[in-house]
């Protein structure tokens, strides 16, 4: 088979209810020769068998199986090794692409090593799109500072971006996902690309349909989400990256690094609260509420919003996508 222009890597774990749609959206890309590498991460629900049956006659689809559940980063790295395309693209198994996504992004193939677009938030429980995650932006280059800064009233968290990356660039600089981090691994991956000198170009068109962990319309959790809110491994990894890069960072980049780490540390109790709630550990939830001021502020603010009967707003889209300091979710446990 002729080498593809784009290799699409789709990690999956027990997502048989949605992964076929993700693969179909990749194969439906207009006028782009591609391969789709589905990396099953130890599913127990028949996910890999379903994909193999659904695309048995399509040579563009390759199904790989991890020997056991190793996490989304390890699955992506396995897909990277198998990729034959000039570009490697990332697609999660509960997400979709619009048919002209690759065609639109590849217009900038000569301008960057990293090309990404806006995200269209999708509420799985409501079965509806909730609007773009990023607002008030335009096409253009992103800097390391852009990626490092945590989100705030006047800025966005670009750690969620799902790019096309030049395959030879990744291999030449030995850039892979950290398989010991299962929350915020996209941010680390993106930072490594910028640190290696990669040019990052952003297209302000929501061509990637991103299923948020919690719907901005329904307020309900996605049935496909396998989110973890434990940011401690991410904090440790970012501290290591900061130490490695410190000598060659600008003053602005150093400040952005410190702001990101401070934000993550301050919000870490929120992650513990979410984990306790997900596991039904109500005593731990009460303890965190009593001992952590940030938890009390969040709970009280939410109760006040519900009392006022506020409807979901554009500002909630980033919260549904992961929040100001919660890194992007993954689909592995």
The H-and-E topology, N to C, reads as EHEHEHEEHEEEHEHHEHHHHH
- Overall pLDDT score: 88
Low-pLDDT stretches are 311-316, 323-333
Count of DSSP H/I helices: 12
Distance between the termini: 35 Å
SS elements, strand count: 10
Strand content: 15-25%
What does this structure look like?
The chain has 333 residues and is α/β, with parallel strands linked by helices. The protein has 12 helices and 10 strands. Strands 1, 2, 3, 4, 5, 6, 7, 8, 9 and 10 form a 10-stranded mixed beta sheet that branches. The radius of gyration is 19 Å and the shape is globular. Mean pLDDT is 88; it is low at 311-316 and 323-333.
Give the topology.
Layout: E1 6-12, H1 19-27, E2 34-40, H2 47-54, E3 61-65, H3 72-82, E4 87-90, E5 96-97, H4 101-105, E6 114-123, E7 128-132, E8 140-142, H5 144-148, E9 164-166, H6 167-172, H7 185-195, E10 200-211, H8 232-245, H9 251-278, H10 282-291, H11 293-308, H12 315-321
Parallel strand pairs: 1-2, 1-4, 2-3, 6-10
Antiparallel strand pairs: 4-9, 5-10, 6-7, 6-9, 8-10
Helix pairs in contact: 8-9, 9-10, 10-11
In short:
With 333 residues, this protein is an alpha/beta fold. Helices cover 39% and strands 17% of the residues.
């Amino acid at each position: 088979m002729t080498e593809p222009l784009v290799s699409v890597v789709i990690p999956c774990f027990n997502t048989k209810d949605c992964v076929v749609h993700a693969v179909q959206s990749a194969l439906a890309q207009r006028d782009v020769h591609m391969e789709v590498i589905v990396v099953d991460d130890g599913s127990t629900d028949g996910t890999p068998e379903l994909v193999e049956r659904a695309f048995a006659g399509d040579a563009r689809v390759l199904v790989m199986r991890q020997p056991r559940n190793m996490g989304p980063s390890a699955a992506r790295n396995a897909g990277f090794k198998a990729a034959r395309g000039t570009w490697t693209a990332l697609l999660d198994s509960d997400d979709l692409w619009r048919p002209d996504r690759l065609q639109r992004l590849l217009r900038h193939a000569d301008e960057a090593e990293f090309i990404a677009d806006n995200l269209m938030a999708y509420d799985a429980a409501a079965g509806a799109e909730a609007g773009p995650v990023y607002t008030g932006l335009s096409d253009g280059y992103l800097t390391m500072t852009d990626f490092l800064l945590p989100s705030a009233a006047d800025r966005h968290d670009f750690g969620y971006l799902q790019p096309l990356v030049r395959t030879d660039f990744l291999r030449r600089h030995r850039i892979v996902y950290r398989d010991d981090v299962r929350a915020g691994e996209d941010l680390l991956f993106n930072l490594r690309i910028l640190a290696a000198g990669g040019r990052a170009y952003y297209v302000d068109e929501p061509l990637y349909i991103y299923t948020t962990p919690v719907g901005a319309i329904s307020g309900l959790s996605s049935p496909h989400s396998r989110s973890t809110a434990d940011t401690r491994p991410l904090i440790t990894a970012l501290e290591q990256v900061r130490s490695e890069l410190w000598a060659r960072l600008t003053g602005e980049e150093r400040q952005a690094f410190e702001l990101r780490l401070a934000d993550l540390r301050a919000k870490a109790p929120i992650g513990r609260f979410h984990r306790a709630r997900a596991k039904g550990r109500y005593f731990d939830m009460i303890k965190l509420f009593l001992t952590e001021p940030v938890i009390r502020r969040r709970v009280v603010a939410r109760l006040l919003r519900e009392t006022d009967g506020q409807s979901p707003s554009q500002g909630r889209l980033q919260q549904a996508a992961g929040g100001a300091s919660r890194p992007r979710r993954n689909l592995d446990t």
